[in-house]
């Protein structure tokens, strides 16, 4: 065993059990381990979310198909019009992963990923806008915010 690997072994805590590794694929990946059961088969959308997800994806298609000719111009300008961003919000796309109790759609990560796939098929900057609101802003409040926030 090399000095590096023995030092790493010493840093392991009681929380780093085999069970913990099975449930923490990112932690295992950091250690250079791949937990195949966390990746294959690829996560599927739960049946109870499938119908809602289809409605969301269909709404994204209808909305973005009508806007498709404008993406190139917006990219040139380096901004999306306020009306467009407001329409994304009205469609509920800024609350995809937020639980229904807090006014969101409560999609799983697989469902969230599917919506971003669909919006990216039109323009990836739309997915970036959706993702910034869902992951950076709202997810932080969900994880660490107070009831008042």
Give an account of the 3D structure.
It is a single chain. By secondary structure, this protein is mostly helical. It folds into two domains: 3-39, no CATH class; 47-144, Orthogonal Bundle (Butyryl-Coa Dehydrogenase, subunit A, domain 1). 64% of the residues lie in helices and 0% in strands. Helix 5 runs parallel beside helix 8 and helix 8 (109-120) runs antiparallel to helix 9. It is globular. Mean pLDDT is 82; it is low at 5-17.
Radius of gyration: 20 Å
- Beta-strand residue fraction: under 5%
Q: Any idea of the CATH class of the largest domain?
A: Mainly Alpha
Supply the helix-strand structural class. Answer: mainly alpha
Q: Biggest sheet, in brief? A: none
Order of helices and strands: HHHHHHHHH
Number of helices: 9
Number of domains: 2
CATH homology superfamily name of the largest domain: Acyl-CoA dehydrogenase/oxidase, N-terminal domain
């Amino acid at each position: 065993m090399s000095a590096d690997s023995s030092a790493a072994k010493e840093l392991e805590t009681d929380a780093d059990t085999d069970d913990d590794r099975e449930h923490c694929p990112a932690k295992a990946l950091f250690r250079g381990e791949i937990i195949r059961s966390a990746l294959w088969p690829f996560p599927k959308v739960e049946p109870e979310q499938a119908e809602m997800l289809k409605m969301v994806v269909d709404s994204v298609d209808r909305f973005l198909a009508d806007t498709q000719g404008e993406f190139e111009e917006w990219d040139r300008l380096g901004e999306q019009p306020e009306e467009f961003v407001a329409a994304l919000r009205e469609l509920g796309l800024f609350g995809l992963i937020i639980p229904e109790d807090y006014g969101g759609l409560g999609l799983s990560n697989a469902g969230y990923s599917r919506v971003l796939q669909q919006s990216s098929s039109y323009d990836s900057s739309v997915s970036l806008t959706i993702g910034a609101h869902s992951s950076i802003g709202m997810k932080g409040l969900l994880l660490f915010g107070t009831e008042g926030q």
